[in-house]
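Give me structure tokens for this 264-residue protein.
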Amino acid sequence: MNSRILYLVLLVVALTSCRTSKKILYLQDVVPNHTEVIHNAREITVQPQDQISIVVSSKDPQLAALFNLVRVQYRAGETDLQSSSRNGEVSGYTLDENGDIDFPVVGKIHVAGMTKSQIAATVKQKLIDGNLVNDPVVTVEFMNLYFSALGEVAHPGKYAITKDQITLLEALSMAGDLTIYGKRFPVSVTREEDGKRVTHWVDLRSKYLFDSPVYYLKQNDVIYVQPNKVRAGQSTINENNVKSVSLWVSIASFLTSLGVLIFK
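Here you go.
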């Protein structure tokens, strides 16, 4: 009889362990060593009100300097504007409501919807076509692009986007990954685009995550990880006491001991 009870206890523990792993493991249905084609890989494109830096380099530094904005940093007691400029930082271009920037000498350039490399190529071509710089090297970087991670992640907050492309899994890793109390489904990603707001749900446990329109993030996306029942139960003192792990372990131990005594 004792062996039957022990067997039942071990079976319950095993089943509980399996259920728990099904809730927390990522990408459970991915086939190992199976190559899959990547669809809809998407780079970050700039939108109105985004800010970017554009740096032009050339064999003639003085000529290239005409096209580089500089944020002057004044220091106490310093009256030499030129020395202040040498210590300045490159300033940024903010896209207006039409998605344009006002580039020195060239004038208005429409860059909304472009990637960093596309913007660099466009600016370079305009400098060459206008006989302004014969050998320009143009570098473009993001300045104020972010995503936010909220809820049951290790480090909730706002994170800068510096790469041409960022995935949801990369973003979650930047936020320290989900805590053990975070639901793997549904994880929501809220996106604002073209004057509209839409919230997508994704399942981190499934490979179909890769097909989600929010697997590749965009600037201003907000990721929210919901708390599971254990974490939600900790919101009140009474539920916390009832649902605490130590309490259930004590109850299980008591019932096991009682069963052994009864059926001995």
